[in-house]
């Protein structure tokens, strides 16, 4: 007859999204439901954060494997210590608290019933360290995990796991409007010139927000053209001086045709869904970036286009940024503003007046690219 009916680990949510960020303390419970009296060697809970990448590349008859690993932290807390002979271990039962007395041998003897053990990891994600948000992709992942492990003599260890959804709040100055422009001669199969000005209301967006794009097109050519807008996600995995690239168009808008020798202004909105991966720019082996491409589809010609960087933020950071306002560099101490040392601010939505500076592990580039 098995002695364990259930072995689980849970954490206490800090917000409606169930996420954790820099400076948060994690509390939770390990529950052990026993069908009969059981001897236990030890019980501990472990918190860890790791990033891993792995992919293969075939060249001729040989297959090369590339992999890399980064560990951000690993902490362990004993709930029933090893070799706890002669000690009193406190557990919370489903009926009332009790003390379990340990007989004169190494194992702890727990009676039948439900045993609940509380744990606390204070500031598990410290403010002074920049750690990347949780991520899972085709060739890599960034995972933060709580693991409870129960050891018994002559038995396979029992393990319970609970994944933590970590969202980094290290962000650059991203609340200004973006503006781009391009001008191009259409070439052999079409005579004339096309000019396009495009604006995006800001750079950073959270789930539920709408990205507002405006474009003014002056088609002075002999060809018709179709304005198109694409939001593209770029993921890069790095290992052993090699890179693995993934690019995916996650949203596309096709506007009505702009006829030859006409002018037109288009305006559209792209709503950011809640299942988008967050931007990751502070991990050595995995980066996730977005860019918005506004371009003109012209038959038998190179398409003029403008690229804008886009940052996807966690939902609770939306209040820290203004929309639709053209702004210059932030003054010292402003939310998301870089200081003279190249540091970036850590935004706290629960306390907007508190700003903590941290150094990002990798440089964040914000620029508008025009292709002609």
Q: Would you kindly provide a written description of the structure presented here, covering whatever features stand out?
A:
It is a single chain. This protein is mainly β. It has two domains: 163 residues, Immunoglobulin-like (Sandwich); 194 residues, Immunoglobulin-like (Sandwich), CATH 2.60.40. The protein is built from no helices and 25 strands. Strand 11 and strand 12 form a beta hairpin. It is elongated and about 90 Å long. The chain starts with a strand and ends with a strand.
What descriptive keywords fit this protein?
Arrestin C-terminal-like domain-containing protein, Immunoglobulin-like, 6-stranded mixed sheet, Arrestin-like_C, mainly beta, 372 residues, 0% helix, Ig_E-set, 2 domains
The sequence of SSEs as H and E is EEEEEEEEEEEEEEEEEEEEEEEEE
- Give the end-to-end Cα distance, rounded to a whole number of Å: 74 Å
CATH architecture designation of the largest domain:
Sandwich
How many structural domains does the protein architecture include? 2
Q: By helix and strand content, what is the structural category?
A: mainly beta
Q: Uncertain segments of ≥5 residues (pLDDT<50)?
A: 85-105, 319-372
The whole-number mean of residue pLDDT values reads 80
Major sheet? 6 strands, mixed
Rounded radius of gyration (Å): 27 Å
Number of strands: 25
Looking at the structure, what is the overall shape? elongated
Q: CATH class of the largest domain, please?
A: Mainly Beta
Figure out the total of helices.
Answer: 0
Enter the CATH topology name of the largest domain: Immunoglobulin-like
Strand-residue proportion:
over 45%
Helix content: under 10%
GO biological process, one term: nervous system development
Organism: Amphiprion percula (Orange clownfish)
Domain Arrestin C-terminal-like: 190-317
GO cellular component, one term: cytoplasm
């Amino acid at each position: 007859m098995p002695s364990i009916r259930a072995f689980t680990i849970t954490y206490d949510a800090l917000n409606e999204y169930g996420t954790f960020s820099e400076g948060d303390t994690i509390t939770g419970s390990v529950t052990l439901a026993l069908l009969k009296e059981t001897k236990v060697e030890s019980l501990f809970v472990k918190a860890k954060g790791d990033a891993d990448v792995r992919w293969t590349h075939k060249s001729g008859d040989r297959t090369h494997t590339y992999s890399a690993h980064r560990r951000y932290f690993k902490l362990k807390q004993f709930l029933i210590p090893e070799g706890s002979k002669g000690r009193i271990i406190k557990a919370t039962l489903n009926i009332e608290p009790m003390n379990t007395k340990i007989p004169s041998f190494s194992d702890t003897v727990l009676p039948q019933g439900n045993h609940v053990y509380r744990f606390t990891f204070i500031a598990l994600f410290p403010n002074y360290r920049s750690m990347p948000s949780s991520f899972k992709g085709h060739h890599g992942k960034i995972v933060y995990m709580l693991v409870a492990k129960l050891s018994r003599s002559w038995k396979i260890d029992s393990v319970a796991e609970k994944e933590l959804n970590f969202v980094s709040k290290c962000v650059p100055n991203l609340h200004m409007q973006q503006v781009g422009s391009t001008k191009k001669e259409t070439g052999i199969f079409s005579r004339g010139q096309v000019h396009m000005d495009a604006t995006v209301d800001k750079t950073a967006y959270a789930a539920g927000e709408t990205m507002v794009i405006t474009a003014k097109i002056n088609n002075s050519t002999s060809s018709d053209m179709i304005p198109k807008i694409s939001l593209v996600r770029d993921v890069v995995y790095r290992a052993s001086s090699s890179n693995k690239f993934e690019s995916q168009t996650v949203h596309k808008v096709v506007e009505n045709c702009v006829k030859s020798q006409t002018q037109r202004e288009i305006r559209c909105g792209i709503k950011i869904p809640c299942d988008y991966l967050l931007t990751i720019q502070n991990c050595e082996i995995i980066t996730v970036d977005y860019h918005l491409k506004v371009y003109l589809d012209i038959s038998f010609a190179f398409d003029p286009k403008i690229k804008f960087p886009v940052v996807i933020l966690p939902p609770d950071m939306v209040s820290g940024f203004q929309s639709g306002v053209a702004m210059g560099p932030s003054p010292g101490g402003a939310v998301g503003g870089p200081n003279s040392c190249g540091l970036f601010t850590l935004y706290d939505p629960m306390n907007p007046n508190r700003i903590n500076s941290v150094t990002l592990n990798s440089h964040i580039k914000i620029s508008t690219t025009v292709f002609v």
